[in-house]
Write a structure and sequence with these properties.
This protein is 17% helix and 45% strand. It is of the alpha/beta class. The chain has one domain (4-150). Strands 1, 2, 3, 4, 5, 6, 7, 8, 9, 10, 11, 12 and 13 form a 13-stranded parallel β-sheet that branches.
Length: 157
């Protein structure tokens, strides 16, 4: 039996709603409206057939029935439903497709294994993306260096 956090929706963006920003959720996310930014979740994300996401997605698993413009990286399974569209790079250990789908980007299906998260991080780094899986935030020293570089401050070790 699945854990409650895997079947109960934690966060819902309704059909006539829109959100712009970075959404970080511990649990299940369902998008029925418009999203712009990025989505990181420790659980599952469902992008319904009415959803339009201009966002990169990093999750444990995902179901895409609408349109996603951005990279999609999952650590377990990606399911694309009939009519689903992804315009971006895709990483998944398992990929299921149902009916007519579109993926416009590089696709890496790694297969299940023990080093899935490391393979996903390598995939993300290879593309120069700064998105990270849930719980894989940049170390404090790396964030400090990014802030100093943005402010034009240089320092020696």
């Amino acid at each position: 039996m699945p854990a409650p956090k895997d079947i109960l929706v934690n966060t819902l963006l309704g059909p006539d709603s829109s959100f712009r920003g970075d959404l970080i959720v511990d649990g299940f996310v369902r998008i029925d409206g418009s999203m712009s930014g990025s989505i990181r979740t420790s659980g599952k994300i469902v992008v319904s057939d009415t959803a339009r996401c201009d966002a990169s997605i990093v999750a444990r698993s995902a179901v895409v029935g609408g349109i996603v413009r951005g990279d999609v990286c999952v650590s377990e399974r990606l399911t694309i439903l009939d009519g689903g569209v992804i315009v971006g790079d895709v990483f998944a250990p398992r990929l299921d497709a149902d009916g007519d789908i579109v993926i416009h980007g590089d696709v890496e299906v790694a297969g299940p294994g023990e080093k899935t998260e490391e393979a996903m991080l390598a995939f993300i780094r290879k593309r120069g993306s700064k998105i990270r899986p849930f719980g894989f935030d940049a170390p404090v020293d790396e964030r400090r260096n990014e802030v100093k570089a943005a402010a034009g401050i240089s320092w020696r070790k």
